Amino acid sequence: MTLSLVDVAKHSTNKSCWVIIQDKVYDVTDFLAEHPGGSKVILKYAGRDATQAYLPIHPPDALKTLDLSKHLGPLDSADAQQLHIAQQNRVKTKDELRVEEQYKKRPPLGRILSLADFESLAQLVLSHKAWAYYSSSADTTSANVENARAFSRFFFNPRVMRPVRDCSPATKILGFDSSLPLFVSGAALAKLGHPLGEANITRGAHKGGIIQMVSSNASLSFAEVAAAAEPGQTLFFQLYKHTDDSLAVKRVREIESLGYKAIFLTVDALTAGKRECDVRAPWVLEDMENGPAYHVEGGPADIADDGGTAGALVGADDQNMTWEKTIPWLRSITKLPLVIKGVQCLEDAVLAAEAGCDGILISNHGGRQLDYSMPPLETLYRIRKRRPDLFDKMEIYIDGGARRGTDVVKAICLGAKAVGMGRPFLYAQSCYGADGVAKAISILDSEIVKAMKFLGAAKIEDLVPEMVERVDWQAKL
Amino acid sequence: MTLSLVDVAKHSTNKSCWVIIQDKVYDVTDFLAEHPGGSKVILKYAGRDATQAYLPIHPPDALKTLDLSKHLGPLDSADAQQLHIAQQNRVKTKDELRVEEQYKKRPPLGRILSLADFESLAQLVLSHKAWAYYSSSADTTSANVENARAFSRFFFNPRVMRPVRDCSPATKILGFDSSLPLFVSGAALAKLGHPLGEANITRGAHKGGIIQMVSSNASLSFAEVAAAAEPGQTLFFQLYKHTDDSLAVKRVREIESLGYKAIFLTVDALTAGKRECDVRAPWVLEDMENGPAYHVEGGPADIADDGGTAGALVGADDQNMTWEKTIPWLRSITKLPLVIKGVQCLEDAVLAAEAGCDGILISNHGGRQLDYSMPPLETLYRIRKRRPDLFDKMEIYIDGGARRGTDVVKAICLGAKAVGMGRPFLYAQSCYGADGVAKAISILDSEIVKAMKFLGAAKIEDLVPEMVERVDWQAKL
Amino acid sequence: MTLSLVDVAKHSTNKSCWVIIQDKVYDVTDFLAEHPGGSKVILKYAGRDATQAYLPIHPPDALKTLDLSKHLGPLDSADAQQLHIAQQNRVKTKDELRVEEQYKKRPPLGRILSLADFESLAQLVLSHKAWAYYSSSADTTSANVENARAFSRFFFNPRVMRPVRDCSPATKILGFDSSLPLFVSGAALAKLGHPLGEANITRGAHKGGIIQMVSSNASLSFAEVAAAAEPGQTLFFQLYKHTDDSLAVKRVREIESLGYKAIFLTVDALTAGKRECDVRAPWVLEDMENGPAYHVEGGPADIADDGGTAGALVGADDQNMTWEKTIPWLRSITKLPLVIKGVQCLEDAVLAAEAGCDGILISNHGGRQLDYSMPPLETLYRIRKRRPDLFDKMEIYIDGGARRGTDVVKAICLGAKAVGMGRPFLYAQSCYGADGVAKAISILDSEIVKAMKFLGAAKIEDLVPEMVERVDWQAKL
Amino acid sequence: MTLSLVDVAKHSTNKSCWVIIQDKVYDVTDFLAEHPGGSKVILKYAGRDATQAYLPIHPPDALKTLDLSKHLGPLDSADAQQLHIAQQNRVKTKDELRVEEQYKKRPPLGRILSLADFESLAQLVLSHKAWAYYSSSADTTSANVENARAFSRFFFNPRVMRPVRDCSPATKILGFDSSLPLFVSGAALAKLGHPLGEANITRGAHKGGIIQMVSSNASLSFAEVAAAAEPGQTLFFQLYKHTDDSLAVKRVREIESLGYKAIFLTVDALTAGKRECDVRAPWVLEDMENGPAYHVEGGPADIADDGGTAGALVGADDQNMTWEKTIPWLRSITKLPLVIKGVQCLEDAVLAAEAGCDGILISNHGGRQLDYSMPPLETLYRIRKRRPDLFDKMEIYIDGGARRGTDVVKAICLGAKAVGMGRPFLYAQSCYGADGVAKAISILDSEIVKAMKFLGAAKIEDLVPEMVERVDWQAKL
């Protein structure tokens, strides 16, 4: 049985809400209250086609969670055809036109010299919505800004007259080979920036010889990402644990069977950070189309509490995890190495070691959650100063703010096993797909090797704490 | 007996000065010298109607202090009518037109995401005079700026893996329930920003479940504010003690009978701060109307010493209060809890505790009095470091500079019982009345709860000093 | 015998150089080599009238040092008349026209609220040359900028609940009454800014009840300044000691007989600082008249070493003074109190005390001499921390960078007896003559009294070191 | 036998690559792979004249290293004539026209007051390529910027009342006379800025009485530089040691025979720094000519790894030097004093002293190599604090960031024997040739003498550590 556009249009309220996604009709009335992103954003499309809004921010299997009885069936094919034509013929928004124009004018990839070049270009070629989601951070944006600035308080004491002609930055992460002390940190919704999404990162990471950590909130399914990997390529999995343990077990089983090699349990994103730039994005776009002046009709509007794109992603996550309960439980269901992503202070690093974790990723989620959370490099430095023994008990990584080979090297000198980067690879793939990701890694490779040679270090183990000094001034950026 | 405009016009000098306020005539000749704001501002209206200038900056009962013999009687009704028509027909000033235009263009309240949004909007919709009065601060404005910047030197050491799904920010202030560790700090002249004045704040505070401290310099009478409160709603009173003890007693009796629940004795505003932006406001307006170029006629003008709006408010306040004399005296006349508002250093915090006060509000009056006074958060930090025992002896609050939920949480971690905010609520009510105030509280509620969850704190008591660290750099704002 | 313009014009080279000053002819050929400002600036006027260039930067008795045989006699009166007419009819420069225009547009003095207002206005109403001379400082200007910024690292810990209704800022300096802990620091060439020159400051200082220190490089004679003083008004003298002791003795005798009450021996200006803005002033003016584009004719020009206005003033000063020799010698020739102006470190403060000086003025000459010399407030702070006993052995003053009442109060809290200000009074008199100076003092008086009341200090002695704290951040200016 | 343009044009690929340089033909096919600057830049000129690109960045004897069999012989004279005419008639680029225009408009040299003036002017009169090469520094440019900013954290504690009329800044460096505690640090490719290249610096240094250190990468031959020196003028040599010891020996023999007086062994430039501005220069020029908009043809371009001008210079340098091997070897082949250029931390300073070096030059290569390397002044300060004995064991110099006489004096106070400067002299010679260099030295002389007098120092030995203080704030630049 097929349904027509007219049928669907009759269900356009919160009493009965149908939507069309990729030519199929779904009854989402009961789901409205559960939608992690709130009901409002769905009701905008009630009774009509939601495909364009849905696709870039949901993995393909997202609809699986909807009871089969709500899968109402395919759209009438003539009506589907009509939708496709309308989509093709529709007037493009100013933002879409801007993006098309800018994308055509991209420079040759060979002219990209640094991750900053990718970021500047990404701001031009990304849709406003994608840029807002990728670049935004919490509240005043201080946590994000300070993540990066922290690096500028650490200077090098380079050693000279040491043989460095044969210099190798290769290392191992959880026992897996990596060409660099660097990995791709999990980052959601790559399809917002490029139609191939996370697969671009997978392919680029392979070219560059580094490991990708895949987010639970990837816009491809975990199977699709795994399929993009070459044989033998290492993938890690960033787990957002569902409140429902059984669903979490199911997910772990799935990624185990797909060959993911380690679990990074996310503990720094229990609820959505307040990313105002992201929340504001739809209004900015609306004003861009219609002009900025409008009236407050009928007095002040209702108080909306729209969590932005982020709100949609973490709504079902477990906010009651504990060291005592969650770690043994995870150990009991999987043999994969376990890393805690989101440790943010010395005390929790100690607890993680005591809990027998294989590693911790010091991270404040790129400054997207708690504003004024301590920059990860500073936390790393505190561990180095006060509990250097922890570096022998587990692997310690950081992410957040690193943008240069020297940044990576500073963290390695202080004891980090590797440094994660998220946004830079999103920007690189948005600009040039997999080639962009490979180029980003190649830039970092060159920067890291140069830095090592200038420091008198021929291999990763030669990078020692004495080579960096935390200074009492702040470099002028 | 009624008086005519012609009668009044004959009394237009400092020898005999009559003014009309709301269709009544007053002889203020003898009062000129006593007027806290100076005689000049009254003489500008000598012999004519002063209603528009008088209303927004005086509470309705201000004329009570004028001897009844000086209440000369009503204006002739035809003349009053003539005044009203003239007022309606008068050419609006450029500033009034600007405000009307901007007010119409306010965004829907739902688009306000932060207190900063309210502030930006307030600068647009407020009259220049109101903005100058609300936003101005002393001398170089450093005290005000640094109040806020102080927060940016305190970073969080968040704890993870703690159950926070059920998170409550509720607390008690002087034993009274508050939905948040937050209260409205006393701020004068709300009517400058909105015709309903302080009542907007009262109603918004009720919706948000927080306590309002009402200023002695409110532009509504204390009874009017109390009348705006819902049954059971808690109001505190910010007392500016009059030099004349008997007048002070009278005021205390009045607010007791109105049901105010505590007294915040103001000790940081004995004389008017030098708020240059406020003093300059009338000249700016004059230049705005007439163009900025003018000549110095007949050589340099007299040296004027106009204290601005602030000067008018504190002229009669007691500058000779002491711990030994004033506290016991206050205790002897009232059973209400007593908090000293304006303590600014550790030594005075100790004295307040020794004097048996119920609490102190560390405040430099929003940076409006002494430039370069220590930011309240820094003073709180010094007490935490050197005399943590004081937190057990009395309740300690701070106000000044807090604009985000994270700011509030930082102060609570350091030991504050609650944080006061003044200007933000003035801005919110100026933009949207009581709804604006409620929205501001709702924003802070959301920010505070998010911050608590990210810190691993499920209740206020979980916020501990170890969670904040004063860093040796300054976040880039 | 009179001389004609034609006669004079024959002597226009460095072999024979005559100039006309105020209708008198002088042979300055032999003086060329001795001129403190270099020969070049004189040769520009060789064979013609130099009056306009000469007057604003020389005291009236400067020509006394020229041997009488070189006073060639008066100019022919018809020729003198011709010069006057030419001067009156000459085309005004763009800079002169700018100054006239701006001077007319000055605001009423009543609208000046702070010393910063005077400074902004001075930049508009001063000739470029005067502004360059007054405002310029050494090399990168860091010393000058940091003098002021130093104050922004000192915050107050105010005391409350102290009786301050009767608050007096009066004090004594070297035993002489002063209405404020403030004096006019010696500053040269007031006539560059206003035709009445230093006399404006003298009259304004009297109105404000503070003491003026008169510079050896005043553009009025010391007698003229003394004549502008009221009976009983205190003047101090800033001595630039001549290399020739006998000339120095002569000068001391002169100012003793004129009633000056103390000697401030200048030791921080042995040679001219490199004030690039001042050196560049004539070129800026030339380009302003002729347009900025010009060619290097015949290859690069000679390497000039023009010391600017400053170079002209200190050429003959003694560069070989010592504690052992100079202090006893000065004591032997005068009974006046002796203060060393220009002490810049703790060690020299100790030596001054040991040498029995009555006081020291910690000063880096307004940052006009040695770039990166320690800000005086910082030096004062170091003395307070390490040798507080010195404050009991002599009076200690500072100048440089203070612009607000709070600045003055900070220094007094740290132990300074008084604070000197130079440029602010030059700017004030340039804008409004003596009235401007009086207004500047009145502003400072009001600011100082407010600060004292807010600090809980009813008299100067109540200002104690505990009230200021050097913080580890820098206020944002 | 001569070759024609047609003959040459047949060899325009990487299989067979001929180029014309100054009317001679060379077969560089086999050399392509060895070219330190990469093959790409040569292939751009394959089969045609490369003279204009070759000359400014290669010393005249660079072609000596090409096997004689590859020197194919002279170009046919008519064809050579044709090339010359074509070169003369060719359309000038926008950049060339800009440079010509700006060069004509240079101010007279007498108006240059500071090294900053030279730098500002150099940016105008230099080709974009030259400016990019001279001014560029590594990665984020922080190392370069911080080199200069470091000086702004050191303030003076000047001494007064000391005889300074006779003040001399003369000193000795490695026993050789220098009029100032200052020398020219080696800097490559002076011909990029001025046709006379390094000889300008040699002549200017002689006029100013200071010593020039000549770079291995000079654009004149070492013999040409030596020939520009006056009899008795001291030259030092900055050695980039070739990987092949025998070539290194040959170079040492050559400069010994030319009369160079010391060897500064470069250890901070083993590989090219990442100077993005320099790498980007050709693209900027291309866009300048053709407009900035272009398309990515056929998908993203190849990933280029162009090391910029710098890459071409250090490709053959020895990356395996060690204290144990290299120092004794150098000592065994020459009696010249030996200084290690590029020491960057205390530990290596100790090793240099233990290895018996005559001196070290603390340098991070002007911030052009490792970003965030410690500023040399800070390293000097650390040696002064922790190992002051090292100053007695060898001479210690610094370079990087010094731009003022006060900068030099600060380093001397801390124990440096002399301060090197590189870029400032390149800028000075680019603007005005040898006269510019002499003027730069004269400016520094004047600034140094003034600073010494203001500090109370009559000779270099009077400059002591107590005169400088590292402050905990940063001057506002």
From TrEMBL, chains A, B, C, D:
Its EC number is 1.1.2.3. GO terms for molecular function: heme binding; L-lactate dehydrogenase (cytochrome) activity; metal ion binding. It catalyses: (S)-lactate + 2 Fe(III)-[cytochrome c] = 2 Fe(II)-[cytochrome c] + pyruvate + 2 H(+). Residues 107-473 form the FMN hydroxy acid dehydrogenase domain. Residues 1-76 form the Cytochrome b5 heme-binding domain. It is found in: Mitochondrion intermembrane space. InterPro entries: Aldolase_TIM, Cyt_B5-like_heme/steroid-bd, Cyt_B5-like_heme/steroid_sf, Cyt_B5_heme-BS, FMN-dep_DH, FMN_HAD, FMN_hydac_DH_AS, L-MDH/L-LDH_FMN-bd. It is an enzyme of class 1 (oxidoreductase). Its cofactor is FMN; heme b. Keywords: Flavoprotein, FMN, Heme, Iron, Metal-binding, Mitochondrion, Oxidoreductase, Transit peptide, Transport. It comes from the Eukaryota. Homotetramer. Belongs to the cytochrome b5 family. This is L-lactate dehydrogenase (cytochrome). It comes from Cylindrobasidium torrendii FP15055 ss-10.
